[in-house]
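Appendix B. Raw example, untouched.
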Amino acid sequence: MTYRVEVKQSVIKTLKRIPRADQVKITEVIKALAHDPRPHNCLRLADSPYYRIRCGDYHIIYDVQHDKLIIIILKVGHRKDVYDRL
């Protein structure tokens, strides 16, 4: 079963400000989520329906909608400030 991955426009904007090497790694992780929405290194956020996965110094916050087979990438950012205004 393959999920469709949707990336918010704000995430695309944020990715452009991240160093190129990290952009490539983050993009690979996002693409891999389509085949496995909950890999072994993902965590469910406390008191939230969202998940996060770590990619180096960056975290990817996403929502999985199993009934529609959609993964929505909500936020990408450095681990020290990715949870601000979530």
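End of appendix B.
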